[in-house]
Amino acid sequence: MSTQEVRALSAPERRRRRGIITMGGLGLFALAVFAILPKEGQPVTYSFVLGDEWILIKEWIVNSKSAALGFAIASLLAVVLATLQFKAGKTVRLASAIFAVSFLMSFLSWAAAGKFIPFTGLLQGGLLLSVPLIFGAMAGVLSERSGVINIAIEGQLLAGAFVSGVLASLLHNNWLGLLFAPIAGALISLLLAVFAIKYGIDQVVLGFVLNVLVIGLTSFLYKKLLIPYQSEWNSAIAFNPINIPILSKIPVIGPILFSQSIIVYLMYVVVAFIHIALFKSKWGLRTRAVGEHPTAAESVGIDVNKIRFKNVLWAGAVAGLGGAFFTLGAVGSFSKEMTAGKGFIALAALIFGRWSPLGAVAAALIFGFADNLQGLLTITGTPIPSEFMLMAPYIATIIAVSGFVGRVRAPAADGIAYKRGGGSH
Amino acid sequence: MKKFLSKITLPALAFTMALFVSGILVAISDSKVLALKSSPLSMLAEAFSTAGSAYWALFRGSIFDPELAKANFIEGFYPLSETIVAASPLILTGLSVALAFKAGLFNIGAQGQFIAGAIGASFVGFHFELPIVIHSIAAIAAALVCAGLYGGFVGFLKARTGAHEVIVTIMLNYVAGYFLLWILSTSPFLRPGRQDPLAPEVRMSSRLPHLFGSELRANLGFFIALLAAVGIWWLLNRSTWGFKFRAVGANAAASKTAGISVGRSTTTVMFIAGALAGLGGAVQILGSEPALTAGVGGTFGFDAITVALLGRGTPLGTVFAALLFGALRAGGLTMQASTETPLDLILVIQALVVLFIAAPALIKAIFRLKNVDEGEALASKGWNG
Amino acid sequence: MSLELRGITKRFGALTANDSIDLKVESGEIHAILGENGAGKSTLMNIVYGLLSPDEGTISVDGKVIDIESPLDALAAGIGMVHQHFMLIPVFTVAENIVLGHEKVKGPGFLDLETARQEIKRVSAEFNFDVDPDALVEDLPVGIQQRVEIIRALIYDAKVLILDEPTAVLTPQETDELLRNMKKLRDQGTAIVFITHKLREVKIAADKITIIRRGAVVGTASPSASQEELASLMVGRPVSLDVKKAAPKLGQVMLKVENLNIHDHTGRTLVKNISFELRAGEVLAVAGVQGNGQSELAEAIVGLQEHIDGRITLDGEEIKVGRVRDALHAGIAFVPESREEDGLISSFSIEENLILDLHDLPPFAKGPVISQNAVAENASKRVVEFDIRAQSPKDAASSLSGGNKQKVVLARELSRPVKLVVASQPTRGLDVGSIEFVHERMIAERDSGRGVLLFSTELDEVIALADRIAVMYRGEFIAVVPADTSREELGLLMAGVKR
Fold this sequence. Notes:
- The complex is a heterotrimer of chains A (425), B (385) and C (499).
- Chain A contains 16 helices and five strands.
- By secondary structure, chain A is mainly α.
- Chain A folds into two domains: 3-119, no CATH class; 128-415, ABC transporter involved in vitamin B12 uptake, BtuC (Orthogonal Bundle).
- In chain A, the strands form two sheets. Chain A has a three-stranded mixed beta sheet. Chain A has a two-stranded antiparallel sheet with strand order 4-5.
- Chain B has 385 residues and is an all-alpha fold.
- Chain B has two domains: 1-62 and 342-375, no CATH class; 85-326, no CATH class.
- The radius of gyration of chain B is 22 Å and the shape is globular.
- With 499 residues, chain C is an alpha/beta fold.
- Chain C folds into three domains: 3-235, 3-Layer(aba) Sandwich (Rossmann fold), CATH 3.40.50; 240-331 and 417-499, P-loop containing nucleotide triphosphate hydrolases (Rossmann fold, 3-Layer(aba) Sandwich), CATH 3.40.50; 345-416, no CATH class.
- A six-stranded mixed beta sheet of chain C has the order 6-9-10-3-11-12, sandwiched between helices. Chain C has a six-stranded mixed beta sheet with strand order 18-21-22-15-23-24, with helices on both faces.
- In chain C, helix 4 (114-126) crosses helix 5.
- The chains are: A mainly alpha (425), B mainly alpha (385), C alpha/beta (499).
- Chains in contact: A-B, A-C, B-C.
- At the A-B interface, helix 7, helix 14 and helix 16 of A face helix 7, helix 8, helix 13 and helix 15 of B.
């Protein structure tokens, strides 16, 4: 590198520069469209109180125009910071985060001119919408880090939702329903594992077919049994939220994070466990090894396909548990195709988060928040059609995989069946 | 003949297995069967009769209905006509996926491309006033362009940035779905005086002529689909373009080394694949469902993949597979109406067929077969491939 | 400790890769397994190491028959292996790679890397290996990666160490150092199995030599045997180790490369500021250890490298980035380094492979249609001309042996109007007969007035074919020297030492 100072920037640098230019463009856009273009400002009310938490600040009323202006300027300052960091050869992660928040707030101030925004509720709802995405993305991490593409997340979620809802209803016991959700997800995974690992079938095709199978099965049974015999088969009631003492009283954060149902708390545990285990444990080392270079793993005596098999099963279990959120975590009863493509957004979050657990969680939170914001704005009415808001996560994912955000790299052997002795490279 | 037999053995057995397993599902989820838990024999008999009557309805709804034939023999073939109607778009979307397969691409985006084509055909069909024939051609051309660009964009993105087509097409399916919802709420697409998402019907001048009289819905779309299949066969096996596509699909690195532009091939293939799926959308709108609705895409995209897989990625196989699934769809409606067996069973059958097809080893083990043509394996290339 | 193989047989379909092989290796000896490419050496060692299971035969350690079903069993029995293609995970650190499979844990299941770090430092110091336990493997040069593999075997206390073609990626001096270390290990009592096809190294290092040909043991030899004797045992007939060639008749300057730099997609520089000229009727051989930018330079000349600056001209016409087709039709024949990945489409028929680059030109294409007759006709001609041994030209290329695959590539590339031949490792992995064919063909091309740019990591090949030698080191032409330069000097240049 040292002899080549004069030549052009490297590809990642160019990409980062492209990212900064894009942010700059968006910041200017915010300045023009959200702050300068509107003829007159209207008051926006941000409310920060949801339940009985301690109150730090109750609400914040600002003029939409000045708030949009303030946040647009903040986002541009973040771009300046990013440029400085870039020049200094540092990462621009912090600046990008500041930019994202400022840009969103500028947008929100503009979109909600003259309206009431329950800020805490917005975030809480966003978290709730991202719960299945996070479970799904964790299922993706478990499976894909070991080298098996998991397109069947959607099916695993749906199976978990169906089984937990139906069993909770039949047995009049939510806990049993919750217990069987991961088992249902793991059963779908079992098919994925057997066909992908044992028979070496294309994992994308397979995952896809499994989704169709689960959609078909659950819809069939839904119409055949759940609708006609609803009181018996489909009358589960959702878990109640549990307030964690003291923590739930923290202003703003408390009601968002610590006044949730058991499934959300389980999610915290699952995420923390997967993140730590993947990078700090023997299991994690082996999982990453078989996902990157299975032949090398085999050569030190690791049974590649056994690890993959186990991981795929665990992935199904995690997604199945996430599926229970649709029924027991939210509305109680099951409805046809109730996962509505959330499994694919979870896949998008996984890719957006570059196959890392925390990255995927961050992406899922953004998607969930955007989804909730969209819902809120549809109700309050905004200048942007809600359909375009709904498209946002998908378009963001396309932008991400096109390399505008950064290089997205899957585990090297992800999706390639491993045959013993034959190698896969 | 022997070769032909060995080629269809596997799909035939896979289909039989799928029907068998789904039959069990129909039987055990039936309340009358479940009520007979105490006497296993009569339960078994009831199970057989339940599954049997569901499949009989499936047949009646897809091939030939003796009841209808009593009055007028030709009428008895009304279900077959419905099968053809259902199969026509499936052939086209199936070809879209199959062509991409041959070129090493997995087009999950037939759904979105179908929608793009349907929007284009619908708009030209209801908005303009043109003479017959020309109107149809114009509407079809609009569909080809809209969907071709929608598919070609994926290829272009892959060629330029390496974005994996599976991810991009999945995402674009959702984008197309929401776009359709939005456009149906805009004034050009709203029927005068109505607010629900239902576009005006396309004008008669743009519709495809019926093949067997006005009573039967089978229309020229079927021939368009067959023609497309022949065209794709020729393209792949006889033309220089097809040579390039197959070369890139089989080994992109070697193709590049031999001076074939991989990016151009990828973009072109995805454009053609998109156009094929879009043609499916046009055939649907101009042939049988003249009004664009939010549900126009149905499950065509999913079905396209199962069709292409069952058809082993060849044009001829795709035609047969599409006819089979078309029959299932047409028959499924009758089955749902007359035996209270939900239409969703068709999805289960389709998924099972593909699972069994995809794992020849499983079928061979079950039936203890030796000489079966397994077709080309669908070897996975992974996310980075 | 001793390792004994009895009657090891392994078949892949119709091919018998190992035919009833007997072998005994004692502690404190270096036992060379000599055989040409494709003789079955690697298969045998993969069986010993548990990566393949034999169809027949037994493996015993210290006289006791043991079952080796996976590498775990081999490691437990004290058998370690340094693989030809390193078994290291690029995105892991050295320490992570070394603990993999033998992880120690502390506390509630946390990975313990500290012990491994200490061990690595200890072994590294003992052998002067200079390996940093926390370096990422992908950042290390291949020579160091090989040391990581050796350290791994030593840490797991290998009593039998198998080295599979270990010198292929090393400079002559690094090779000598490796051979010294092998002797040091031997003197400490390790049994070493040294797999190679290089006669010189066998003579330097081996205590015993077993020769394998077509999957069977054909004899043993002592290290005092002459190279000619060993070669004829290995190949089964007398082999002339020299290539006959007359003095070159130099023509005009044909290929001109000026100030060429090549970067990879992360911006790393792979080729630095290279300028050279090649005349018609000349073989310029580019020598160097694998991974010093040769592959990229070769690809750049036909436009296959994306990120380049500088100028490449053929007879005054510039070769442009990405315009591979133009480069080929301007008169460059390109024999890529990897036949399987870049040279051929395995699932395509031989006749289709023979027209990969010409399929859309007459006579093969009439408008948009491919003429099946012209394709078949072409194939039957080429098969004869290049002696391609195939059942039918309609068979898939995957059915061919390595040598015949290379002949298909050569037949395709040399049957266009060609001015310049760019051949990258054209004999890698081939049997001696095919190597001879390729060598003769290269000289024939030169003598017919074409320019030949040959890239090879095999010093013997470079010396045998070159009219001039360029040595590449870390992306640079460290020197361009006459063909009669001594092996020692070339070796030093390959290691980056300029006189």
